[in-house]
Amino acid sequence: MLKSDKNPPIDKVSRSRDFGPILDDYSFYLEHSTEEEADRFAIMGKVLQKIDRNSMVRMLDFGCGNGLFTSRILDWVQQPPEHLELVLVDIGEKIRLEAMAKLQPFSQYQIQAADQIPQKSSPFDIIIANHVLYYIDNLDQVIQKMWNLVKRNGTFFISIAGNDNTLIDLWKLGFDEIEKPLPYHISEDIEQILQKGIIPYQKKSIDFEIQLQDSRENRLRMIRFLFSDHISSLPLTPLINFFDKYAAAGQIFIQTSHDLYILEK
């Protein structure tokens, strides 16, 4: 076990959206898209290049959710449990505990988990922020803080959709309907921060597909996942009709992409 069971000191910046209320709809989305698989394969190859199975690897999963995404990466990478330390961050306590239980078999050390970024911590070999930075307050500060936690020769992965993504189009449609700006960050915001902060990065486009049986309820599930607590103030008809151009033969089929940023020290 770790020498100390205490969580590291915690910074005041945290993720501002709890996925608990829409977890079922989010799971529905993941089950009907290849997004998770596409992200996982894009990250796994790079992780294998970076890790040494004979040396300790420290990993931070920021916005860990239920831990499934990272568990699938670790299952494939096969880092020895005695050479892996994990730190998890997610705002939802219940889902954080679920992630801890799912990921604990991959490490012989007690997993550290909290709802905010560690402020004082040993540096990390790998940091993953998988489709979570949309919802972050003080985005530039969060990115800089995590970049400061990357070890020399370490890697920080950021997956996030931008203006080329179909679901971002749906977000924009919804908030345009009520004449409000998009309240979330997108890929272009990340890139602007990275360029302003002169942080070296690679940017890759990750293609994926969404396919589901066409029904009003399934369209609503996608809308609930995307808009969460905003949905009560939005007109549903244009959002439901958004899917018409992707519907044929009783199915909805969307081909789209998002971005993967790879920040290496």
Q: What does this entry look like structurally?
A:
By secondary structure, this protein is α/β, with parallel strands linked by helices. The chain has a single domain, classed as Rossmann fold (3-Layer(aba) Sandwich), CATH 3.40.50. The chain has nine helices and ten strands. The chain has helices at residues 23-31, 35-50, 68-77, 93-103, 139-148, 166-177, 187-196, 216-227, 236-241, and strands at residues 10-14, 57-62, 84-89, 112-114, 116-118, 124-130, 150-160, 202-213, 247-248, 251-264. Strands 2, 3, 4, 6, 7, 8, 9 and 10 form an eight-stranded mixed sheet that branches. A two-stranded antiparallel sheet has the order 1-5. The two termini are 29 Å apart. Mean pLDDT is 89; it is low at 1-16.
Number of helical elements: 9
Strand content: 25-35%
* Helix residue percentage: 25-40%
List unreliable stretches of 5+ residues.
Answer: 1-16
CATH homology superfamily: Vaccinia Virus protein VP39
Distance between the termini: 29 Å
Question: How would you classify the helix and strand content by structural class?
Answer: alpha/beta
Shape: globular
Order of H and E elements: EHHEHEHEEEHEHHEHHEE
| Largest pleated sheet | 8 strands, mixed
**Computed Rg:** 19 Å
* CATH class identity: Alpha Beta
The count of strands amounts to 10
Number of domains: 1
Provide the residue-averaged pLDDT: 89
- Looking at the overall shape, the CATH architecture is 3-Layer(aba) Sandwich
